[in-house]
């Protein structure tokens, strides 16, 4: 008989699943929860490793799909000319990603914005896998350390964690449950 997975394996798996593609589960409550159980640095490093694996899988699987979709959409657009080396219109997010991909991804962790727009932009602009993964690590390491520290410093009751999880699920459930009407 197999023994159940340990808390570090569960945290790693949860960090992976909550960061892959367009995941609908929040990772913040789990990191706060494990911060008090595993310690700040163990929580930070394990959650970062799970997130980095998710970034590698995302880049290998979804980057080619997003790039193909962007090329089809922008086939005759002035934006596509820049991708072919010609003159074209570059938006400031595209310029920023092409110039500073790691810094842009890393700094996105300081914003309250969801990560998926940054992820899609990184894939659409052709950010290399190594730079993308390094940016994701630089983005989540300090964030996870702060969340883990919060869990270790403040004993958060289980009911508060459940409420936080439910609150953070609202935007995801809204997207899944109540699709927008066609305009």
Using only CA atoms, what is the Rg? 18 Å
Helix/strand/pairing class, anyone? mainly alpha
Number of beta-strand segments: 0
Tertiary shape: elongated
Distance between the termini: 55 Å
How do the helices and strands follow one another from N- to C-terminus?
HHHHHHHHH
Number of helices: 9
Could you walk me through the main structural features you see in this protein, from its secondary elements to its overall organization?
This protein is mainly alpha-helical. The chain has one domain. The chain has helices at residues 7-17, 28-38, 40-73, 78-83, 92-99, 101-108, 116-124, 129-153, 158-177. Helix 1 (7-17) packs parallel to helix 3, helix 3 crosses helix 7 and helix 6 (101-108) runs parallel beside helix 8. The protein is elongated, with a radius of gyration of 18 Å.
Provide a brief overview of the structure.
The chain is mainly alpha-helical and 183 residues long. The protein has helices at residues 7-17, 28-38, 40-73, 78-83, 92-99, 101-108, 116-124, 129-153, 158-177.
Properties at a glance:
mainly alpha
Q: How are the elements arranged and paired?
A:
Blueprint: H1 7-17, H2 28-38, H3 40-73, H4 78-83, H5 92-99, H6 101-108, H7 116-124, H8 129-153, H9 158-177
Helix pairs in contact: 1-2, 1-3, 2-3, 2-8, 2-9, 3-7, 3-8, 5-6, 6-8
